[in-house]
Amino acid sequence: MYRSQNLRIPGPTFVPQSVLQASARPLINHRGPEFSALLAGLTRALQDFLRTRNDVLLLSCSGSGGMEAAVANTLARGDRVLVFSNGAFGERFHQIARLYGVDARRIDVTWGRAVEPDLVRDEIAKEKGKESAKAVLITHNETSTGVLNPLKEIGEVVRDSGKLFIVDSISGAGAVETEVDEWGIDVLVSGSQKGWGAPPGVAIVTMSQRAWKAYDRSDLPKAYFDLQAAKAYLEKAQTPATPTVTVFIALQESLKLMAEEGVASICERHRDLAFATRRAVQALGLGLFADEAYASPTVTSFRSPTRVDARNLIRVLRESYDTVIGGGQGRLEGQIARVGHMGFVTLQDMVTFVSALELTMRDLHQPVEPGQGVTALLKAYEEATQPPPKPKAAAARTATLARR
Amino acid sequence: MYRSQNLRIPGPTFVPQSVLQASARPLINHRGPEFSALLAGLTRALQDFLRTRNDVLLLSCSGSGGMEAAVANTLARGDRVLVFSNGAFGERFHQIARLYGVDARRIDVTWGRAVEPDLVRDEIAKEKGKESAKAVLITHNETSTGVLNPLKEIGEVVRDSGKLFIVDSISGAGAVETEVDEWGIDVLVSGSQKGWGAPPGVAIVTMSQRAWKAYDRSDLPKAYFDLQAAKAYLEKAQTPATPTVTVFIALQESLKLMAEEGVASICERHRDLAFATRRAVQALGLGLFADEAYASPTVTSFRSPTRVDARNLIRVLRESYDTVIGGGQGRLEGQIARVGHMGFVTLQDMVTFVSALELTMRDLHQPVEPGQGVTALLKAYEEATQPPPKPKAAAARTATLARR
Fold it and tell me: What is the 3-state secondary structure (H, E, C) of chain B?
């Protein structure tokens, strides 16, 4: 029997058929002119999307490898750094730094809440008198909880401190406004399988001039993740080791689709769909896990109904309704579920998801009327996208115009 | 105008359409049951192909990442190791070890010649009295020169010494006889895009019990390449970070095709085609670069005609005949060309290549008659595969039978 699966985990995301087909083209020589043109084009396109003139380097690994590259290429053994963490990926960043012998102090924020700029300012102030921390490491979009940290405002604080600003934007960039140069981001890491709508296998890393200076004094071992080697090879439009050619080709194709839509529209679409998704989830009587003021545009987390293990809800969604969402990570396992709406996501995708969630809730004997969630989704989407514009929507539109 | 490209670099190889199509299937959840079944099946299939009961761990990177994992997971800072090198990849192995602060002594063998077991024995003997070397690192199939090192015999020497035996078989395993357990290989590294006939993006690493003991005393930093983490996740049929899902699926598909043919037939096919290719190259008046006694079954290197830069020959092959082969690496650039015949390669592929090489030679004003190379190829292939069997072929057949 034919069954179509609705993949709604927070990455890898759904990948459009044209992107998948591009990745299935016959292999090419990674030291030949076709790949060189591909790599040069990808690099330029990513600079545009990330709004940066910094180097953009592509590594053949997933996002975690990019995080490791960010650490290994800019820090030295014993360096003091501050890691602001409000979820599993903040903890991972801290763990990677520690594994390399970096003196990483982790500042924990309650999961589901954002890292506030004031906290960053206070913690940086506490460092005075001690051997000053070299860098601030932070997650942009915390996939494990569905929180978007206010990176722009945090960036202002970090810039004032003179410290290196190292950002994991694996599940943010490509879907969420990301201004590398304007926000003073020295190193930003992203991953092909998240907002970029391609399969996993390419990590994207930007390096500022300050980051390259830090490279020169970095003494951590790196070979596969050596960004200077990546830069040297990029100058001849190659990569040091064999790249994940098929994923590079897919990424090229997805960037073409994204360029047609435009970065401002993409970010708006994510915000609107996230808003509508939150309203639908609440309309079904489910509690949002993340602080809504900082709710992620790419992943929505919600609590399981009382006396229902989230793993059970996720299982019913998958087994009965072919809808695949993520569960809680670490301490949140069984407590929350996470639905991804990043990359090439449409309103129709979310209608499909919400209808499956409705049916699942009914199967779990929850008081839900047919259409309750879908109606809330559609109403909220209309509210977010139709005139009369809300002040927020108007501001976003002005920003879009200003950019042209 | 339609032009079909004949990709004959020594990896990434040609990938069959069915394998490419498999990699273009809709994405799946890397934490769900489909991926778990895939990973468990892949691991078992690779154990069969590599003839090992050791752990087989899959990393989402290319072969060089696997080499780094081999070093970072088994050695400690300041450990003394011997690296036997007869080409660019031997040098890479040495460089990776050095970057990690390992006291790696490189024993260089003339490029194009093999590392002989006696050399390994002598060099190990020289270590007596010094702080004994912990490990021997060696390339199985040196892609840069087209030499297959006699790993079985070297393995006997290394085993007698009690040292850890760490092998880069990136372009060997899957196409060339590789007996991990029988030859006492503690760590073997391979890559999906070589003999396995899949796209790049999965490195394969085997770990013996002795290698795991070495892990426990290893103090080199590793996160993305941490094999203990990979093993812990494998126990629940997952990977620590997001895997290159599409490449994993492709590899599963190519292993199915390989299992239909059988490992003994695959190895025989590579030997026979390599033999025929060497005869064809020589029939065109080109000199073989590698010592024929140790010529690689997966890549044949040959010298450019006198007064012809190999880069020019490679360019004409590509531009006029859509045939893409590799050039010399490092000090061999411009001197040699390398044609790959690994993975899903057939006699017809090599006929196509040799005919293109013939035409190229004529374009370069070399004295070549039409059909000269192709005739030699076909005759040599017949000689290699038809009765009366050569003693070598007979021995191979007996080995095949014994294994059943």
Answer: CCCCCEECCCCCCCCCHHHHHHHCCCCCCCCCHHHHHHHHHHHHHHHHHHCCCCEEEEECCCHHHHHHHHHHHHCCCCCEEEEEECCHHHHHHHHHHHHCCCEEEEEECCCCCCCCHHHHHHHHHHCCCCCCCCEEEEECEECCCCEECCHHHHHHHHHHHCCEEEEECCCCECCECCCCCCCCCCEEEEECCCCCCCCCCCEEEEECHHHHHHHHHCCCCCCCCCHHHHHHHHCCCCCCCCCCHHHHHHHHHHHHHHHHHCHHHHHHHHHHHHHHHHHHHHHCCCCECCCHHHECCCEEEEECCCCCCHHHHHHHHHHHHCEECEECCHHHCCCEEEEECCCCCCHHHHHHHHHHHHHHHHHCCCCCCCCHHHHHHHHHHHHHHCCCCCHHHHHHHHHHHHHC
Binning pLDDT at 50, 70 and 90, where does residue B386 land? confident
B101 touching A (Cβ < 8 Å): yes
* Angle subtended at Cα B355 by Cα B349 and Cα B359, rounded to the nearest 5 degrees: 145
Closest alpha carbon within chain B to A30: B12
CA–CA distances in Å: residue A18 to residues A27, A224, A250, B120, B281: 17, 30, 9, 52, 41
Mean pLDDT of chain A: 95
Nearest CA among A198, A229, A30, A46 for reference residue B247:
A198
How many whole angstroms separate alpha carbon B207 and alpha carbon B190? 12
B331 touching A, CB under 8 A? no
C-alpha A256/C-alpha A253 separation (Å) is: 5
Give one DSSP letter per residue of A283-310, joined into a string. Answer: HTTPPB-S-GGGB-SSEEEEEPPTT--H
Give, for A37, the enclosing helix (H) or strand (E).
Answer: helix A33-50
- Report CA torsion sign: A233, A236, A241, A243: positive
Once rounded to an integer, what is the mean pLDDT over residues B345-358?
98
Q: Which residues of A touch B199 (CB under 8 A)?
A: 27, 244-246
**Does A344 score more than 50 pLDDT?**
yes
Determine whether the interchain pair B29/A9 forms a contact, defined as Cβ–Cβ distance below 8 Å.
yes
Q: Do B14 and A30 touch (CB under 8 A)?
A: no
Mean pLDDT for all residues in chain B: 95
Tokens coding A86: 């409000």
The C-alpha of A60 sits at a distance from chain B's nearest C-alpha, in angstroms, of: 6
Is A244 within 8 Å of B62 when comparing Cβ atoms? yes
Q: With contact defined as beta carbons under 8 Å apart, do A324 and A197 qualify?
A: no
ipTM: 0.94
- How does DSSP classify residue A312? H
Residue among A26, A200, A250 minimizing CB distance to B242: A200
SS3 A24: coil
The confidence score (pLDDT) of residue B248 equals 98
User: How many whole angstroms separate alpha carbon B267 and alpha carbon B35?
Assistant: 30
Interface of A with B in 266-325 (CB under 8 A): 318, 324
Q: How far is B127 from chain A (nearest CA, A)?
A: 27
User: What is the per-residue pLDDT for B187?
Assistant: 99
